[in-house]
Amino acid sequence: MLCSKCGAENPEGTKFCSKCGTEFGVPATPDAGEVKPEAESSTGMSANIAGFLCYLFTWITGIIFVVIEKKSTFVKFHAWQSIMVFGVLTVALLILTWIPIIGPILSVLIWILMVVLWIILMIQAGTGKMWKVPLAGDWAEKQASK
How far apart are CA 68 and CA 110, in angstroms? Predict the structure, then answer.
């Protein structure tokens, strides 16, 4: 199955392009009795599961998947986005610990933002979507396509 956006060849029955992440309109059904994985990553997992796992332990699992993923642009995108989003927010939390009075208040707001983003990003990746966080998503997309 060819992607209409980037022209990449994809296995039949996939919901999104393994190279650019474009969602296909009508998913093809596999032949009777034959089960085909959805856009497998080089880890042997389906790309959406690997993308979900990129966010499991925030930037830590992002780094792990950047190192081990060689095939799926979808997984690499989510790994890079995890590193960027949660890495920046972790550094911000560390800096705020040194600021008296306003630091603890801002830290609570950043923790809430981190939890909300963590849930949203895991759901989006698990359902096969390349949902981009502003700024970080564009950067992650460039890194994943290299």
Answer: 29
